[in-house]
Design goal:
Blueprint (H helix, E strand, L loop, with lengths): L8 H33 L5 H28 L9 H20 L14 H21 L4
Helix pairs in contact: 1-2, 1-4, 2-3, 3-4
Length: 142
């Protein structure tokens, strides 16, 4: 029994969820560090901004990847994980999640304190998101 097929209603719902989670993750990744920097420059605490980044970034990146994987599964062999663009995109997806989780760890997380490495981790996150955007748009090797 087929739940959905490439281009039908259920596929399009998953596709919409994939795009929404990408918009949320990318927006947060680029805007929240700017807000935190400006807040710190005013001598104010960045705890609220850091908490928002921790609550939004990694979870929305995970959701984007899960929905993206579901799209591959629902695509009726139009897309396959053996395609280079999906494998490379998956690698950079993992890099982005790790960078986001280390740069903005949730308060309940046992992750190490990497606060001195946040600029580097944010740069890695931005670079990973940019590479994924290019790969997912042009689908090299499809």
């Amino acid at each position: 029994m087929t739940f959905a097929a490439y281009g039908d209603g259920a596929y399009n719902v998953v596709y919409l969820l994939h795009i929404i989670s990408i918009i949320v993750a990318t927006g947060a990744a680029f805007i929240l560090p700017i807000v935190a920097s400006r807040t710190a420059a005013k001598g104010q605490s960045t705890a609220v901004v850091d908490g928002a980044a921790a609550a939004v970034l990694a979870p929305s990146l995970v959701a984007a990847g899960v929905f993206g994987g579901a799209l591959v599964g629902l695509s009726s062999d139009v897309y396959d994980f053996s395609q280079a663009w999906l494998s490379i995109g998956g690698f950079f997806w993992i890099v982005a999640i790790v960078a986001a989780a280390l740069a903005f760890p949730p308060s309940y997380s046992p992750l190490p304190d990497m606060s001195d490495k946040v600029p580097m981790l944010t740069g890695i996150l931005h670079l990973s998101l940019t590479i994924m955007l290019v790969i997912m748009t042009w689908k090299f090797g499809a």
